[in-house]
């Protein structure tokens, strides 16, 4: 757990991952491997991130109840569902997925979880994220750009946090009092952000 982390929220991440088991968000042929702590293939070069990486990212994100959260690269819908569990029914989660087939499948997986305050939509090709009035309280990015995208930083609300792997290093971006602070938190492997 990183410095300043809220242990209560970390316990919430563990609970969310127990309730929303990874196997529910995997293709049938991968479900028997859901317990393995490694990325598993979905299709078109996309993967389901390994559980320890997802847990580390969610703990770093420190998602508060009632937050507005953007999930970039929602894939199978697992991270979108986990974020929805963390924000609760007073929050909002929007998952964006560039692969149209994966977006439809992820949305169906999410719909089966009865978390109506969360949704998955196809991402707009050539556009990163989706700006909203007042910005997003939290942004989770599950694909790796070559450099930190300013367009996503600009979508953060005041007091917001974004967790994003840049190249192979996990970055935490915090926006406070009009200032942006970026810290790094270990090495990970992700598919490239397109």
Automatic annotation (TrEMBL):
Keyword set, alphabetical order: Cytoplasm, Methyltransferase, S-adenosyl-L-methionine, Transferase
InterPro entries: PCMT (IPR000682), SAM-dependent_MTases_sf (IPR029063)
Compartment annotation: Cytoplasm
EC primary class: transferase
EC number(s) given by UniProt: 2.1.1.77
One GO molecular-function entry: protein-L-isoaspartate (D-aspartate) O-methyltransferase activity
A Gene Ontology BP annotation from the UniProt entry: methylation
GO cellular component labels: cytoplasm
Family as reported in the entry's similarity comment: Belongs to the methyltransferase superfamily. L-isoaspartyl/D-aspartyl protein methyltransferase family.
This protein's name: Protein-L-isoaspartate O-methyltransferase
Organism: Cellulomonas terrae
């Amino acid at each position: 757990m990183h410095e300043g982390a809220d242990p209560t929220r970390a316990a919430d991440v563990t609970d969310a991952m127990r309730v929303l088991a990874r196997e529910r968000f995997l293709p049938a042929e991968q479900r028997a491997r859901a317990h393995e702590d490694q990325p598993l293939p979905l299709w078109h070069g996309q993967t389901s991130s390994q559980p320890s990486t997802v847990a580390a990212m969610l703990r770093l994100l420190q998602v508060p109840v009632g937050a507005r959260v953007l999930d970039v690269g929602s894939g199978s819908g697992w991270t979108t569902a986990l974020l929805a569990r963390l924000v609760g029914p007073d929050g909002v989660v929007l998952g964006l997925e560039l692969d149209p087939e994966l977006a439809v499948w992820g949305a169906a997986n999410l719909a089966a979880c009865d978390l109506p305050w969360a949704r998955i939509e196809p991402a707009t090709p050539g556009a990163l994220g989706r700006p909203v009035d007042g910005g997003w309280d939290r942004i989770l990015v599950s694909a790796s750009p070559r450099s930190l995208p300013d367009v996503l930083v600009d979508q953060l609300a005041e007091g917001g946090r974004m967790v994003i792997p840049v190249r192979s290093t996990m970055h935490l971006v915090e926006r406070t009092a009009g200032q942006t602070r970026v810290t790094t938190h270990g090495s990970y492997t992700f598919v490239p952000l397109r």
